[in-house]
Amino acid sequence: MLISLKWLSEYVPLSLPPKELAERLSIAGAKVERILSHGDEWDGVRVAEVLEVNPHPNADRLRLVTVNVGDGENPTVVCGAPNVAVGLRVAYAQIGTRLRDGHTGEMAVLKAAKIRGVDSTGMVLSEKELGLSEAHEGILELPADAPVGEPLGDYYGDTVFELEVTPNRPDHMSMLGIAWEVAAQTRVKVKEPERIYNETGTQAASQRTSVTIDDKDLCPRYLAGVIERVKVGPSPAWMQERLTAAGMRPINNIVDITNYVMLEMGQPLHAFDLRKLSGGRIVVRRAREGERIKTIDAVDRELTPDMLVIADANKPVAVAGVMGGFDSEVGEGTTSILLEAANFDPISVRRTSGALGLRSEASIRFEKGLHPELAANAARRAMALLVEITGGRAAKGLVDTYPAKRQDTRVVVTRKRIEQVLGVDLPTTAVRTALTDLGFGSRWVPPDRYVVRAPYWRTDVLQADDVVEELARVTGYDKLEARPLAGAIPPPYHEPVRELRELIRDAAIAAGLQEIITYPLTSTETLLKVAPPEALEVHPPLKLANPMNQEQSVMRTSLRASVLQSVVANLRRERGTVAVFESARVYLTNQNDLPAERELIVGAIAGNRTGRWGEPTDEAIDFYDGKGLVEETLERIGAEVSFGSGEEYGLLRGRTAVVFAGEVRCGIYGQVHPQVASQFDIEAPVFLFELDIDALLGTIRERVLHKPLSRFPAMIQDIALLVDASVSAGAVTSAIAGSALVVEARLFDVYEGAPLPEGKRSLAYQVQFQALDRTLTDKEVADARQRIVRRLAHEFGAELRGG
Questions:
Q1: For range 527-546, the mean pLDDT
Q2: Cβ 610 vs Cβ 643: under 8 Å
Q3: pTM for the model
Q4: Of 685, 697, 696, 745, which Cα lies nearest the Cα of 721?
Q5: Distance CA 539, CA 590 (A)
Q6: What percent of the chain has pLDDT over 90?
Q7: Alpha helices in 192-345 (DSSP H)
Q8: How far apart are the C-alpha atoms of 384 and 198, rounded to whole Å?
């Protein structure tokens, strides 16, 4: 929102320098993003009057323009602007003035020039050359009463605040809304604009039109005013100047008035050509199946029955709260208009605007929620301006359809609550003064409370703490005394599942995985890529009532698809390892109204291994790389887990392991089946794990036990074993690792096939022997190795290969 201080001063005295005022507003919650000043850089630019316009002797498109600049010299400039005319007040720059180039936008010093053989002593300027806008097709036209010879900065200069408007403050999208903020910060009174006008029409508005609201839930109030004998033309220069400062392009006096009042008061308005309304009536209803409308941007749009429209007796003439229709817009031949000032449901406007891909200044304001009373005040203000500027005759009264009047918002706030939130007991006079300065009504009810009435433009004030916030803003957050907390500190509230989830997230990141965050919404088709149809029959995904698109139409029952989608996206950009995980909930249907929410951590690893210095290699990630990441992650949180063979839908048989914590199944790990991977356009092997946080919860040690590192050297030997194919590699690993003098046992090769006997496989381990108190001898290691082989032979029927 652009706020012109020159315009703002019409409603409230401005006593503070712009920079200080911007700081005060920002601290109070009306954040000023930028301060734009027009006029300080216009040295050498004066108001001039065009005296003569003559053809250029050597160029058809150029003209010689003689101007009066107030010093009697009357310089002549070469000008190609199509709108230059005798009597026009313009901005004239003398030689040596620093200006913005109208074509490149760069700053340059104006020099004397000869254009097509004719000297040009200066320049008449466009808005772009003055830095006012990007318009440079014609010169800036100043008001007819602009004083000739006066520096342009003194007459036309302005300071504009660019505000960041928060979603709950629609009042900050109006000049009056900011005026109330300034009034509260500087202790001055707001001067509201005139809303009284003469009704000189021969008929009442209710005789010229009628309003019917079919969908009262989407349109709480609709006002219509009628003005006849209007003359469409340019709006006054002062209005055009203010609209331009606010970033709007002037169109004609009627459209400009509706935009002006919208910027002034925050209420969108629309003017219809009354003669183009079939039956001269207004019907507010939902669109019918198959209806279409051509909006004023000349685009033909298809409507759906959930969209609210403004219709005449036969057809839609506007999309409610978004944009008017092309066929009923005001034009040069308009003589009678119907002024609309209405209140629309913000959710309906937002959905319609999004569905049509059409955001307008009106829809942006309606989306934030406006009070019905604002429509009535804005209608009267616009009617007053229309009578004054167009010369039209206003019909008597307004057609005001207001089925269920909305009561004023009244909030009770106690003195104790104010002190509790702010830490200070504000005097009654200070509270009431602050609220009055903001436009609130207040009444002190002894012994301890205030009854506060929120003004109609403040739809964000609904409860006691909202009022307390207003007091804090006006008092000044920096002026509130800092006090320590009183009373006992409440005991900590433990959430075991959340705490474990955060612990695993930290552990996974430390192990080398990258966390991702994806949308909880997906599609049934995507879920079927990673889950069998019968799983979705048991837990059918919850469907959204109003999805934005089909790809995000249901709540996900699995994290696997979103993780695999992230893997393929990263594989396209990286040559090295892609190791990602997501910690989130899945939503499973149950007997109750609410879904069962399970906390899961799902991750995947793919791509190539990285070298010692982080460089990518040509070695592909294998089963054990991913398994090692899972083991390290769980080891870091103190979970003692084991892996057993298993099967899982979507994972490759023979390369899938169930993760156990004791006897509890807490997850799954394995290679994604190539057919599943291909559905995500993944060609390389990808390994996926899924951990259930609830299942892990009861298996974690309260503290992680650490073993001291030995300062004596280790001896590493390989052991290759021949075992039955049914023997678990994890069980063999655990048996070796639990042997005396063994500090680590790592499985590095599994082989089945010729020349091994059928039903047998080879397991190859790298075993590290080490002691804490001495360097091991060769005999000690040989004895330990022999004991391991005997134990494995006894427990698993293992045979030592090659020895």
A1: 87
A2: no
A3: 0.65
A4: 745
A5: 8
A6: 65
A7: 205-208, 237-245, 253-265
A8: 8
The band of 645, judged by pLDDT with boundaries at 50, 70 and 90, is: confident
Mean pLDDT for the chain? 90
d(CA 670, CA 647): 9
Query: What is the Cα–Cα distance from 736 to 501, expressed in whole angstroms?
Result: 32
Kind of pairing, strands 158-163 and 336-343? unpaired
Residue 157 — very low, low, confident or very high, per pLDDT cuts 50/70/90?
A: confident
**pLDDT for residue 612:** 67
DSSP state of 235: P
User: What do you get for the CA distance between the two ends of the chain, in Å?
Assistant: 84
Q: Which residues of 307-345 are buried (b: 16+ CB within 10 A; e: fewer)?
A: bbbbbbeebbbbbbbbbbbebbbbeeebebbbbbbbbbb
C-alpha of 801 from chain center:
64
Amino acid letter, residue 450: Y
Question: Following DSSP, what letter does each residue of 309-342 receive, concatenated?
Answer: EEE-SSSEEEETTTEEBSTT---TT--EEEEEEE
Fill in the DSSP letter of residue 295: B
H or E stretch including 429?
A: helix 428-437
Q: Can you tell me the distance from the alpha carbon of 794 to that of 792, in angstroms, rounded to the nearest whole number?
A: 5
Cβ atoms of 265 and 174 closer than 8 Å: yes
Distance of alpha carbon 772 from alpha carbon 778, whole angstroms: 16
Angle of helix 175-186 relative to helix 18-27, nearest 10 degrees, comes to: 90
Contact 774, 722 (CB under 8 A): no
d(CA 224, CA 269): 10
Tens-place pLDDT, residues 459-498: 999 999 999 999 999 988 888 887 777 777 878 888 888 8
Helix, strand, coil percent content, the chain, rounded in steps of 5: 30, 30, 40
Mean pLDDT of the 64-68 span = 93
Torsion of CA 36, 38, 39, 41, to 10 degrees: 70
Distance CA 372, CA 400 (A): 11
Burial of residue 270 (CB within 10 Å: 0-12, 13-18, 19+) is: buried
